[in-house]
Amino acid sequence: MNDTDVSNTVLERLSGEWDNLTPEAQKAARYVLENPNSVGVSTVREIAEFAEVKPNTFVRMARQVGFEGYEDFREPFKEAIREGHVGFPDRARWLQEVRQSGGLGGLYADMVGAAIRNIEETFAGVSEDALREAAEAIWNSRTVYTLGVGVNNSNARNFTYLASTGMTQFNAIPRPGSTAVDDLAWADSRDVLIAITCKPYRTEVVEAVQIAKEQGMTVVGISDSLASPIIRGADHGFVVAADTPQFFPSSVSTIALLETLLSFVIAVATPEIVERVEKFHARRHQLGIYKDEAT
Length: 295
Fold this sequence. Notes:
- InterPro entries: Homeodomain-like_sf, HTH_RpiR, RpiR-like, RpiR-like_SIS, SIS_dom, SIS_dom_sf, WH-like_DNA-bd_sf.
- The structure is a single chain.
- By secondary structure, the chain is of the alpha/beta class.
- Helices cover about 55% and strands about 10% of the residues.
- The chain is built from 16 helices and five strands.
- A five-stranded parallel beta sheet has the order 2-1-3-4-5, with helices on both faces.
- Strand 4, helix 14 (about 230) and strand 5 form a beta-alpha-beta unit.
- The model is unreliable at about 85-90 (pLDDT under 50).
């Protein structure tokens, strides 16, 4: 859903009421949070069938987040559809040509199309203010712990590596031979946890977020749905689109979001951050880590 008002009001209100919903209403809410585009085009009976709940469940859920009923709840989603989305005819034409080229052209077109859509959908739902607030929390913290396991382990470590070229308070966890909850043992309200996981959600990441909240840490959650347990437990939550024709979830939008978040951290930092980065890279040149292009 590309409509900012819908993303920032209806969906966030629904996510905020999650703990107060009945288990059946949570099933309905999860379907809406993960499939917002379906709301504007589905009757209450249709969407209830999709979510495998009774129609009255959607009516009660809508009333609980401040609407008179499902039709009132549905209206912002219908408005977003009426407003339409930005079209890219040249890109669409190119993808069609690739798909018709034979061989692996169809797979190539599917992968490229998914990557582009993921980037667009992710940043359509992320505001400048949200990034700035998260960046300020990160910059003003004592220590930043970046947590990703499985496919997101490399994403978390890459973010930490880049940040460490100008800042010293970043740590990728879990550390070798450790667990995430052990690494957070002495963290408190002065610290930030950046946690990353997409469906199926990794237990150790969810548990680490719970521990972080108990210890008063600020949590930045990056996941693929507003229904994700780490988004619901985050002070700053960012939803990334991760659809892909392949088996594993795509990391394209996660990497793009992390790079953007880091650029915001540098933007809100004090001026000496630029000197630190320059000094870091100058020293690498002096040590011969970079190949001299003149040789």
